[in-house]
Amino acid sequence: MPDDAMDSAxxxxxxxxxxxxxxxxxxxxxxxDGGPDMVQFVDGDGNRLPTSDANAEYxxxxxxxxxxxxxxxxxxxxxxxxxxxxxxxxQRQGELGLWPSLLGQEAAQVGAGxxxxxxxxxxxxxxxxxxxxxxxxxxxxxLGLFRGVNHGGWDSNANNFHLYTIVIGNQMLHATGxxxxxxxxxxxxxxxxxxDAAVMAFTGDGxxxxxxxxxxxxxxxxxxxxMVFFVQNNQWAxxxxxxxxxxxxxxxxxxxxxxxxxxxDGNDVLAVYAVTKAAMDAARAGQGPTLIEAFTxxxxxxxxSDDPTKYRIAAEVDIxxxxxxxxxxxxxxxxxAYADDAFFDGVxxxxxxxxxxxxxxxxxxxxxxxxxxxxxxxxDPHPVVEREKAxxxxxxxxxxxxxxxx
Amino acid sequence: MTAQKLSLAKGLNAGMRKAMEDDPKVVLMGxxxxxxxxxxxxxxxxxxxxxxxxxxxxxxxxSGIVGTAIGLALRGYRPVVEIQFDGFIYPAFxxxxxxxxxxxxxSLGHLRLPMVIRVPFGGGIGAVEHHSxxxxxxxxxxxxxxxxxxxxxxxxxWMIQQAIASDDPVMFYExxxxxxxxxxxxxxESAGAPLPLHSARxxxxxxxxxxxxxxxxxxxxxxxxxxxxxxxxSLEVIDLRSLSPLDTDTIFASVKKTGRCVVxxxxxxxxxxxxxxxxxxxxxxFYSLEAPVLRVGGYNIPYPPSRYEEDFLPDLDRxxxxxxxxxxx
Lengths: 406, 329
What we know:
heterodimer, A: five-stranded parallel sheet, 15 helices, 7 strands, globular, B: 12 helices, 14 strands
């Protein structure tokens, strides 16, 4: 560079503007309105919405659904809310150390979960109790982690539902790698509905900031992996609202990674189901990944350890209460005469029974035998673990019969 | 005749080739491992022979590489991940510590992650920063991982196969400045079973001082032992091979025999492998010790610019100085 280059450089660089229009600026977030791109089929009052630019692509899936499909999804919504309420109550009663509530996100999780086939694999965060339910995971399995008797411990392969992942975003990469495995097994695009498989990776709005989330989008895009990134945008990452997490909404980010992104009304179970089914069908057929942003709201606290009154106003919660996914679905079913009071009462009764079952299982869950903490650290024998286990047992036994036993 | 003269690099390559031939679930992944064969050419020719689905050129993101390898392992594959240089592993540290090491335990034994993470490590090649580090202690410290390192072509060939066959995740450290050292390698198991993955090896028998080394310092210590012999000092050099778990039987037997122990590694000494070895040796060999366990290692500074590295890395003179110290007690 010649010396005079410095002299000719402008003192203040001319600002370079984006060539693309940034749809949403940092100060323009309305956290109660998903905007015109959001796919929606049922409004807050349970009315079926007409076909629009946003939902037209998915209308056929909804039209092909039967009243029984609708009733069964409603049942899932109610049961999932009850599982969650029971988890919350068990924490308050001291039976669990912690519970992350999904209150308000039932439709997002049931809609997504119901779009999965048995051979599809789910990689959850730690709030996906509704997806677990739809994958057939017994709700009791979820309790051990929060009771402190294990770190999850269920057999992921029994229901193709991976362990909860606490480190935000880690699981997005596991999901992507698993999807790459499906590709290598040739289980994509064969046209066999029982064979073709896809993966769904779950995280929240907060998770979209993680490097692992973004790396997963890169890897999945490059591999054209059979998977769906399902982002539940519940507006809050503990105390931090969307505008502190990203400048454009997550669904718009997908384009930069080379695959479609869709925003769906996360409180409209029919819309979530339709959008997710379309994306999973595409993934299984070999058409690559989709990012779905379910626009929803965390009605409760982040976890039982959190106090949302410190950082958000009640009026916001009230607005979202009007969008409640269960009230909405119930209104829809009733207005169409797809379900009657006897059905709704029956579901409530079933929820009571499920809650009692969970409560009993939790209360009866034994503490594990102490030496078991040394088990399953390694597959093959390991001299350090074996020696320490033996020493621990001997130490524990040294207290046998003594008053000062631990 | 199945013995061949191979470099350590070619030993690794041949070992991975054998593992891939034996098990179609073995996949290699990393930056530039495919067409280029890796920046050190360790995977040279493997993509050509096994295809792009089994030798995967990944995007340039270490957490992504390890994270997706976990997913492949969960699906039933046996991924062998190459981290391009020691100093680039830290973006993957979270996945390795939070997920790789714990998955089997978190699942109460339901899930296994039979994966290998290969790390070229150590200095002495005149590289720019972040290319010469010895970070093995972080991983040896972490329960759920197995951490090993090879020091010669035969171990490179056999240990990489054993690591790939392991149902536990293995951190596989490769002494990059020894990649081109050559030796006869017996490629056929019928000629004698290879040493188990987690066994140490007496690289040179001796009677006066036990010298514990691994990876790149094994050769340096053997050279030191040769020089010491000229001065009438007999060093027993032990190649640890496995850093976690340690083959303590072999280590303790040697120190009980010699009564003196010097640990040599490139990593900084503070809380390095030498600290653990010293603690265990003094605990188990207390009544046999004639001198405190001494450590020769990198100084406790960030790895210096390469013009300093001759003085930073343990060399023959520093090792012999410590041997003399041990003998002076």
